[in-house]
Design goal:
single chain; mainly alpha; 196 residues; binds zinc ion
Length: 196
């Protein structure tokens, strides 16, 4: 008749049994893998776009990445760009508690950069909804677009979010002993390293 709390006296810390807790505990590895594939696929689309414009010399409007060749509306739909930026922000934020120590600092860096990237997309989306553009531009324009063109800017944004994510994941998969001791997930390749 004992409750689970008694049968497992040192069960998981507070909240670990919630969905959010599982995502940052037993499910962290699978969640991170899935998220990385999504982020990589999106970043690859931005790289293909740049390749189409700079190497193949396609006109900017014709360059639509890979998916956009079949579905041109994907590239020209501001709501999809905004949704993706939001999903990425929520994804980074949701998986943050699983990161500890050195990896956490890098993951937070990715979160901060993605937060700004998302603000830029929110501004673009807002202009479409309002039916008015900023800065007297004929097309929706974000703040940093005043200095850099959209194609290069968003390739840059996706790159500078991706790099700290990769560094964070490196330290998460190969943690120092103190960091490994605090991890609740199974992401570390050497959970109990003998050295370092
Ligand atoms: Zn993990």
């Amino acid at each position: 008749m004992a409750s689970t709390a008694f049968t497992h006296p040192q069960a998981q810390p507070q909240g670990a049994r919630s969905f959010f807790g599982k995502l940052n505990g037993p499910w962290h590895k699978r969640a991170l893998q899935t998220f990385t594939i999504i982020v990589l696929a999106h970043w690859a689309e931005h790289l293909v776009l740049a390749y189409q414009v700079y190497v193949l010399k396609w006109p900017v409007h014709e360059a639509r990445g890979v998916l956009g060749q079949a579905f041109p509306w994907l590239v020209h739909s501001e709501v999809l760009h905004y949704s993706y930026a939001l999903i990425m922000l929520v994804g980074i934020w949701t998986l943050l508690p699983g990161f500890v120590g050195r990896s956490r600092a890098w993951w937070i860096a990715a979160l901060v950069i993605q937060f700004w990237h998302h603000i830029e997309h929110a501004l673009l989306q807002g202009q479409v909804i309002a039916g008015r553009t900023l800065f007297g531009s004929p097309i929706p324009t974000s703040i940093v677009q005043l200095w850099f063109p959209r194609l290069e800017l968003h390739l840059f944004y996706n790159t500078v979010v991706f790099i700290p994510m990769m560094v964070a994941m490196y330290y998460h998969v190969f943690p120092s002993a103190p960091d490994a001791a605090r991890m609740r997930c199974s992401c570390a390749l050497h959970p109990h390293p003998a050295t370092n």
